[in-house]
Design goal:
Rossmann fold; alpha/beta; 18% strand; six-stranded parallel beta sheet; OB fold (Dihydrolipoamide Acetyltransferase, E2P)
């Protein structure tokens, strides 16, 4: 058999089971072999029957003494029993409705059983155990993700057959010299040991090799994406002084902002289009950097566009850009879906004629009827909120325009290099001076009434507050109901003298925008929300953020929520309500209370809970890692980055010994990668 053969032709599969395996994304033999274990069942250290821990899973070695007569207790239910001994004590083994399994046991033969042991000190029983012969070679059993109709034994059997029937076809992606230099297990050996390890140490080594392969492929694919973008731009810009912009600003830029602007403007003067990410914490001043780029494009006679995910965020960017750029003669337009048909038509005509230099908008920018006169710079805010096709559609409206991406999601640099690997990165790791520290407190539910009283004091001073309830992905409908009930309850009781609003993810976009607009305008005093509060929406009068069940959130997400307040002149507060007083929970909240640096918090988040999904969205386009863990495999990531750098610098990917690696790289982002 070959890696790309359809899985139905593997002995024991066939068309029906192939359809079931397809639900596990297994369509070829290669897919099957790369369906990796999520865990192992270690049967190498059995205990004596007398030492088994009652009501827990135990591994026991022994011999079948006798098989008792089956007992049919009701229609459709037959119980089979046998007596099992370890030479000192006996144990009853119970099997439900499986004559096949019962018959497979041979009296006088030795077996290893794994299952929950029940009973008492004198009489013990194990029901429906996992069973292997004591003479079996594989005593560390892989545990795979399953689907209905497919069990563990079946998958183990299929994978073993596939590995045996590959006609000596090799999986190896590296040369022998590479393997010696980086001290990694050969890939063919790693794939056998990851499924059927002889011991725990070999399983660890196999996992390390596969994690390396996955990260190396990703690094090379990111490099290729970047190289593909290095086409010639139609907008190589000439150096112009933007001192007028600096003088017009009502504040002094931070060193990080000045550095980011210099990097962007330098990129825009090259033959290749700029592809840069400005990654900054809440309030770090990304829009001021974007505005500088827009002014530079204006001086070079080209248009700029800034696309935001929501109307309220687009309106906020429009207001800010008008404040920065109108005094310099730059004409700014706002194009959103809520404009009347007539106003939209007139505005689009002006954009097409070049009457506007900077256009801010939402998805309306993507419409076929939206044309630009000379689009030289495309800026996307919170890029992960847009699909790959949407971003590409906007860029196609120019001649390979320069591209700037802004994100307020602080993530560790290692993760940023993974997710935004095709972009150059400018970090805004300084916050403007003069901001007051947001006081952060963690309390239990017993102090909720006192926290509400504190919020009411701030409301009476004229401030506003957010109350955030966690989203429960498993049952969003139930969660929305509970959030509505929560809002109704506090509206009728604790905050009956104030205006309480509600915001959640199942609302239409227009309704969400309306609620946020009312809150921003001061018509709502307390906004009860799930985590859909828009990143970047600026409500300077909001001074309190209360988060219910704070232990359900990651540190980075809590930091993002905290960043919704403290955006004005008023002292602001973040109250984290949790009844989880475990050491891990306390450690996380200590990190949050000790620093307001989003990058430090994200590093701690990565260490404490792994990479997870820093965005709450998979739209950023990063393929899901099957085996590598960014937190646990940081040393493997560094090794993969080093090897990828050498392969790229020496052009090794075109050599015959790297053909399989090159094939994997090319297929990665098409979602076709198997083996």
């Amino acid at each position: 058999m070959a890696l790309n053969d359809n899985i139905q032709y593997l002995k024991g599969v066939g068309p029906k089971r192939a359809e079931l395996l397809k639900k596990l994304d297994i369509e070829t033999v290669g897919d099957l072999i790369y369906h990796l274990p999520r865990n192992y069942l270690d049967l190498t250290s059995p205990v004596a029957i007398a030492d088994a821990v009652l009501d827990e899973t135990n591994v026991i070695f022994g011999r079948v003494v006798s098989k008792l007569a089956p007992a049919r207790i009701r229609k459709g239910m037959t119980i089979y029993r046998l007596v099992f001994t370890d030479g000192v004590d006996d144990m009853s083994v119970v099997i439900y409705n499986s004559e096949f399994m019962f018959k497979a046991f041979e009296v006088g033969c030795d077996y290893i059983l794994c299952g929950k042991v029940t009973g008492n000190m004198t009489s013990r029983e194990m029901s429906s155990p996992i069973v292997i012969k004591a003479s079996a070679n594989d005593k560390i059993l892989p545990i795979y993700p399953l689907t209905e109709g497919i069990n563990q034994n079946y998958l183990r059997t299929c994978i073993k057959k596939a590995l045996e029937q590959l006609n000596n076809e090799s999986f190896e992606t590296l040369g022998e010299d590479d393997l010696r230099r980086i001290c990694l297990m050969p890939l063919d050996e790693a794939l056998k040991e990851i499924h059927f390890p002889k011991n725990k140490e070999l399983a660890v080594k196999a996992r390390r090799r596969l994690a390396f392969d996955e990260l190396l492929t990703l690094q090379l694919a990111m490099h290729e994406m970047r190289s593909n973008r290095r086409t010639q731009t139609g907008y190589k810009m000439q150096a112009h002084s933007i001192d007028a912009y600096y003088r017009a600003l009502p504040f002094k830029l931070t060193g990080a902002q000045s550095r980011a602007i210099f990097e962007c403007l330098s990129d825009m003067c090259q033959n290749a289009p700029m592809n840069r990410l400005v990654l900054g914490d809440v309030g770090s001043g990304k829009t001021a950097v974007a505005a500088a780029c827009c002014y530079f494009a204006y001086l070079n006679g080209t248009q700029s566009v800034l696309m935001a995910p929501t109307e309220i965020l687009a309106q906020q960017h429009y207001d800010t850009l008008c404040k920065f750029l109108l005094p310099l003669g730059v004409k700014v337009a706002l194009l959103t879906g809520s404009l009347t048909a007539k106003n939209k038509r007139v505005l689009k005509e002006g954009i097409a004629l070049g009457e506007y230099n900077v256009i801010v908008g939402t998805h309306a920018l993507l419409q076929q009827s939206t044309e630009f006169n000379d689009l030289g710079l495309v800026i996307t805010d919170e890029q992960h909120r847009f699909g790959v096709e949407q971003r590409a559609a906007l860029e196609k409206k120019g001649k390979n325009p320069h591209r700037l991406v802004m994100s307020a999601t602080p993530i560790p640099r290692t993760l940023a290099l993974m997710i935004y690997g095709e972009l150059d990165i400018s970090l805004l790791d300084e916050l403007p001076g003069g901001r007051k520290k947001i006081e952060t407190y963690a309390v239990t539910g017993k102090l909720r009434k006192r926290a509400f009283a504190f919020i009411k004091d701030r409301l009476n001073e004229g401030r506003q507050a957010y109350i955030v309830c966690p989203a429960i992905e498993e049952n969003e409908t139930v969660n929305i109901k509970s959030v509505k009930e929560y809002a109704d309850k506090i509206s009728a009781e604790d905050f009956k003298d104030f205006s309480v609003g509600l915001l959640h993810g199942q609302m239409p976009a227009s309704k969400k925008d309306e609620v946020m607009r009312r809150f921003k305008n001061g018509e709502i005093d307390v906004l009860v929300s799930t985590t859909v509060i828009e990143v970047g929406v600026d409500v300077p009068n909001a001074a309190v953020m209360l988060v219910e069940d704070a232990d359900r959130f990651g540190l980075s997400q809590l930091h993002q929520l905290r960043g919704r307040v403290g955006r004005g002149e008023y002292q602001s507060y973040c109250i984290l309500v949790t009844d989880n007083v475990s050491d891990a929970s306390k450690q996380r909240l200590r990190v949050l209370s000790s620093t307001s640096d989003g990058f430090k918090i994200s590093e701690a988040d990565l260490e404490l809970r792994g990479p997870g999904d820093f965005f709450g969205s998979a739209q950023h386009g990063l393929p899901k890692l099957k085996i590598a863990d960014i937190a646990a495999d940081s040393d493997v990531l560094k090794l993969a980055q080093s090897v990828a750098g050498e392969i790229n610098s020496r052009g090794l990917l075109d050599l015959p010994q790297y053909s399989k690696l090159k094939e994997r790289v090319h297929r990665l982002f098409s979602g076709e990668i198997t083996g």
